[in-house]
């Protein structure tokens, strides 16, 4: 078997091989879960992505590491960012700090979760992330209690609950 970089699996230590096996399995499971969240059959995803049904099945079962082109096609069909799939494929490392444009208090995991939600359109994802960043940027800049009123009572949310 050949690894994504073209090296034989036999040339690598067993621990490295098991790492790639686990990564392939995790990527396949993630794609399958996202497909199911989008309520798509394997055949429907195949038609949307222009990737053969048998090959997609093998990717979902962790038998193949798809190319970047295939990951891009799958991401487009599932309305995900290609970066999300590349991270799950182990081809791009997660950023240790906040994502670009996000304030210091923003949690990259929250933004990844929003981007991975197949139920949201791209516009909805961007709007939700913008709102999230506006709250986290404000908290980071002013501190968590900066939005309290002068009388010491925190403002009420629309539901009438204190923040």
Shape: globular
The N- and C-terminal alpha carbons lie at a distance of: 55 Å
CATH class call of the largest domain:
Mainly Alpha
Fraction of residues in β-strands: under 5%
Q: Tally the helices.
A: 7
Number of strands: 0
Q: How would you describe the overall organization of this protein?
A:
The chain has 163 residues and is mostly helical. It folds into two domains: 19-89, lambda repressor-like DNA-binding domains (434 Repressor (Amino-terminal Domain)); 95-146, no CATH class. The protein is 55% helix and 0% strand. The longest helix has 24 residues, at 14-37. It starts with 13 loop residues before the first helix and ends in a 21-residue tail after the last helix.
Summarize the structure.
By secondary structure, the chain is mainly α.
Could you name the key traits of this structure?
mainly alpha; 163 residues; single chain; 2 domains; 55% helix; 434 Repressor (Amino-terminal Domain); disordered N terminus; 7 helices
């Amino acid at each position: 078997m050949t690894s994504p970089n073209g090296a034989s699996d036999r040339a690598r230590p067993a621990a490295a091989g098991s790492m790639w096996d686990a990564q392939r399995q995790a990527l396949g499971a993630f794609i399958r879960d996202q497909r199911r969240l989008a309520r798509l059959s394997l055949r429907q995803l195949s038609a949307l992505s222009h990737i053969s049904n048998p090959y997609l099945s093998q990717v979902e079962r962790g038998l193949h590491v798809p190319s970047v082109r295939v990951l891009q096609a799958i991401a487009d069909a599932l309305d995900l960012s290609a970066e999300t799939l590349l991270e799950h494929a182990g081809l791009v490392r997660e950023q240790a700090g906040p994502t670009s444009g996000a304030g210091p208090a923003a949690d990259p995991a929250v933004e990844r979760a929003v981007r991975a939600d197949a139920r949201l359109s791209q516009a909805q994802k961007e709007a939700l992330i913008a709102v999230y960043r506006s709250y986290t940027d404000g908290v980071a800049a002013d501190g968590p209690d900066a939005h309290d009123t002068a009388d010491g009572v925190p403002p009420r949310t629309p539901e009438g609950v204190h923040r």
